[in-house]
Amino acid sequence: MHNRATFPNHNNNTPRVCLIDSGINRGHALLAPVINTTDLFTVNPKWGTDDESNHGTGIAGITTYGDLTEALSTGEPIYIDFLLESVKIIQKEGNNNGNSTFHANLFRDAVSQPEIVVPNRPRVFSSAVTASDFRDRGRPSSWSAMVDRLASDADGNGQFRRLIILSAGNIREQVAWVNYPDSLSTNLIHDPGQAWNAITVGAFTEKTDTQDSTLQAVATTGGLSPFSTTSASWDKAWPLKPDVVFEGGNLGKNIYDGFVGTVPSLNLLTTHYKPTEKLFTTTNATSAASALCARMAAKLMTAYPQLSPETIRALIVHSAIWTENMRQKYLPANKTPTKNDYVNLIRHCGWGVPDIEIAKWSVSNSLTLIVEDTIHPYKKEKGEKVKTRDMNLHSLPWPKEELEALGETLVQMRVTLSYFIEPNPSARGTTSKFHYPSCRLRFDVRRPLESTKDFLARVNAAAIIEEDEQQVNPKDPNWKLGEQNRHKGSLHQDIWEGTAADLASRGFLAVYPAMGWWRTRPRLERYNLPIRYSLIVSIRTPKTEVDIYKAVAQQVELAARVIIET
After folding, report:
1. If pLDDT is split at 50, 70 and 90, which confidence band does 370 have?
2. pTM, entire model
C-alpha cells in the first residue's frame, strides 16, 4: 500500500494537521512519510513524544488515509496532499487528572509548541481529548474558553486565527449502549466540545455488517453511532452542537443475551502504535470522526490555500447533509416538521454528514456565493456610550428573470455565516450567552414584496434589540430554523425552501451585529475592533430547461457589499 501512495513535499507551504493527542509513533511505515521527527512535540519532556496508549497513532492513520479498510480493498493510487504534526498532551488514557483550568493551560501549551518552531505554516488543530463527563451542560468552561480564545487569536487582535476541530466526547457505558438510541439524548457533549469557535464533531455510522450471525448491529445504516454525544438537553441559549458528524463505527448486540460490545468489523481500520508487533488495529467513536473531519479540512486548505479558517469551517458545515435515517428518527413522519423539530435534529446530528465534493463544488460552482469580509460592530464617540456601528448589505447575484421563469418550482437556499468570538475574560462569561461573546453577528434576507428601504429599516431595528426573544417581527416561515433559533454560537446556518419566483425577489442579505461584551465593557477598549466573517449562500434547483448557471456567471462579478451605519 505504501508503494501506491504519493506524498507532498515537506515544505512550510504544505498544510499540516496538528494532532493534540497521545503522541505518534512515526516508526510505522505508513506514517513516516507524513511526519518528520522535528514535528513531534510534547507538553511534558519527561513523557517523550511517542504514543503509549494506542490512540494518537491510530488517529494519525485515520487522518492521513481515512478508514484503511477502504484503502486496502483497492489497488488504486493513493494521493496524500497534506502532512501531520503531533503534540503529546496525554501520556496514558485516564492520565492528566485536573480541573478545567489545568486542561486549558495544557491546551494552550500544546498549540504554542509547533507555532513557536514554525509559526507561519497553514495548519488545522485537531484534538480528541475530552473530559470524562458533561458537567458543564453547554456553559463555557476555562478549557472551552481557551479554545475560543486561541481560535479567535484574542491576544493578537485576530491577526492569526486558528481552525480547531474537537471530538464531541463518547458514550462508553454498557447501560447507555443497551438503551440506544434514547441514551443519545441524555449523554451530553464533553468539555471542551461546547467551544463556540471550534468545529465539534459527533459520530454516525454506515457500518452494519457484524460478520457474525449471532450479532446484530445496534445502529442501522445512516444512524447516529452509539458512541456519539449530543446537546439535546442543553439550555436553548447555548450553541447548536455537534456541528457535523462523521463515521465513528457501530456496536454489536448479542441476539441471545443482549450484551452490547465492540465488534472489529464495525470499527475503522487504522495504524497500530507498535508496528513491530502488528501493523493495523481498529478505532472508533468521535475520536475517529474528528480525525476524518480534520482530514477534510486539510484537503480543503490544500485545494484553496487563500481561504480563511472561518471559511473552511463554513464550507465543511455548509456541505453537510442529513441521512434519511436521521430525518426519520428526529423529524415527524405524519406532519410538517416545526422549527423546534429541526433544532432537536441538529442538537443530535449536527447539520449531518459533510461531503468534500459538495464543499469543493460550493467554491467553484457559480450558484454559490462565498464572501470573506469584515464588519465594525460598535463605535464610541467622545462623551457617549458605545453604540452599534455598521451593517453590511450583500447583493445576491441570483438570476431574477430565470428564477421568475421557473415560477412555482421549489428551490432551496442555504446560508452559512461563520465568525470567531473573543470570549469574555471575566468569570461571569460562564453564566450568560450575552456576556460571553465579544460580539454576536446575525444575518437576514429580504422578504418577498419587501422594498430595500423597508428591509434596511427592519434590520436596523433588530440590530438594537439585545434579547433574541424580543426581535422585531421575526416572521419568515420558510426557514428551517428561523431568526429565533439559528443565531446560536458563532456559526449560523439556515435553509430556506420556497418557490423560484419567491427567491427571485430576495436579492439582498444583511450581516449585522448584536450585543456582546465589547459593547457592554467599554473600559477594556475593544469596541473599535473589527470582526472578520465568512458568508456562504447557495441555491439548489431541480433540473430544468432554464439555464440559470450562465446567467449567474454573468452577474457574479457585480455582487457587492455596501456598509451601512446603523
Report:
1. very high
2. 0.94
Cis ω on the peptide bond leading into residue 192 (within 30° of 0)? yes
Strand residue runs (E) in 331-489: 368-375, 378-379, 387-388, 390-395, 410-419, 440-445
Claim to verify: residue 183 and residue 256 sit in the same structural domain: yes
pLDDT tens per residue across span 124-159? 999 999 998 887 889 999 999 999 999 999 999 899
| CA 483 vs CA 249, 330, 438, 493, 496: distances in Å | 35, 21, 20, 10, 12
Query: Quick one: 524 and 394 in the same domain?
Result: yes
Segment 554-559 mean pLDDT: 52
Is the per-residue pLDDT at 473 higher than 80? Answer: no
CA 7 vs CA 25, 61, 80, 100, 422: distances in Å:
18, 14, 5, 38, 37
Environment class of residue 109 by beta-carbon count within 10 Å: exposed (0-12), middle (13-18) or buried (19+)?
middle
Range of the domain at 306: 2-349
At residue 197 the predicted structure's pLDDT band, cuts being 50, 70 and 90, is: very high
**The domain boundary residue, chosen from 323, 349, 375:** 349
Instruction: Please name which of 354, 348, 353 lies closest in space to residue 181, comparing C-alpha atoms.
Output: 348
Instruction: Identify whether 357 is part of a domain.
Output: no
502 by Cβ neighbours in 10 Å (0-12 / 13-18 / 19+) ranks as buried
Q: Which residue has the cell 433544532?
A: 343
Is pLDDT at 265 greater than 90 in this prediction?
A: yes
- Residue 139's nearest CA partner among 187, 63, 195 is 195
In a domain, 208, yes or no: yes
532 forms beta bridges with 374
**73 and 24 co-located in one domain:** yes
What integer is the mean pLDDT of 483-493? 94
495 within 8 A of 414, measured Cβ to Cβ: yes
Cα–Cα distance measured from residue 514 to residue 410, given in angstroms and rounded to the nearest whole number:
32
Q: Interior CA angle at 199 toward 305 and 421, to 5°?
A: 90
| 263-267, 293-297, 424-428: range with lowest mean pLDDT | 424-428
**556 found inside a domain:** yes
The helix, strand and coil proportions of the chain, stated in percent and rounded to the nearest 5, come to 30, 25, 45
Cβ neighbour number for residue 118 with a 10 Å cutoff: 13
